[in-house]
Amino acid sequence: MSLPQAFLDRPIAHRGYHDVAAGRPENSRAAILAAVNAGYGIEIDLQMSADGQAMVFHDYELARLTGAKGAVKQRNAADLSSITLTGGTDGIPTLAQILDLVDGRVPLLIEIKDQDGAMGSDVGPLEQATATALAGYGGPVALMSFNPHSVAALTEAAPTLPRGLTTCAYRADDWPLLPAARREQLRRIEDFERTGSCFISHEANDLAAARVAALKADGAAILCWTIRSPEQEAQAREVADNITFENYPA
To answer: What is the pLDDT of residues 92-110, one digit of tens each?
Structure first.
């Protein structure tokens, strides 16, 4: 399996084409629609609701993006949809709602956020909820996660969809809750072959890593995150096949 060309043809808007000043918070319907109208691919994030729905939301906790308290997984989908995203008028959308909105017009790069808490094997329900929502969807979709166990779970939940690993340098300051040995395993991207991955989406300022070069030489597609200027984009494209961007028109 390989990453479809659609994911390499146009820049990918990080969490939608978001701009709070324009009333488009990240991962909101407004940000998704703006990306569609601009012709960008779209990267979105998924968390799990209490009643087993895949919700389009980045953080584990609600506070930063809504002002509400508690974890996403403590509330059901209807409750979450009634919580307004800060800086906009939309509630937190379900994946099914975003699929209806995009309707196959642009590629969707979907990141499944770690539900284990330590990049471990306590995964499965969100991967299955994602596959259920995607059943019958005809547009270009690719799935990824920082947690290799999550990507491995997708081999059963969504075997026909391209999948990959979200990757980075795993610095201790950025990942203080992960043991050093686990960070080193993840940094080496040891699970690429085991998970049946065909791409990585790698931290932009770590694109010079030897493992990235080796994967590219072996035919893996290299995406990167998060680009915030034309200058960063030009540098990233020396290695990456495509970019995930925000805060400027790519």
So the answer is: 999 999 999 999 999 999 9
Architecture of domain 6-245: Alpha-Beta Barrel (3.20)
- Taking the C-alpha atoms of residue 191 and residue 185, their distance in angstroms, rounded to an integer, is 9
All residues at 6 or more sequence positions from 45 whose CB lies less than 8 Å from its CB, including other chains: 15, 27, 56, 57, 58, 110, 111, 113
Q: Which residue from 3, 12, 6 is spatially nearest to 237, judged by alpha carbons? A: 12
Give the pTM: 0.97
Q: Among candidates 167, 108, 117, which has minimal Cα distance to 143?
A: 108
Q: How far apart are CA 171 and CA 157, in angstroms?
A: 31
pLDDT of residue 187: 98
Q: Which residues of the chain have pLDDT under 70?
A: none
Burial class (CB in 10 A: 0-12, 13-18, 19+), 172: exposed
Amino acid at 194: R
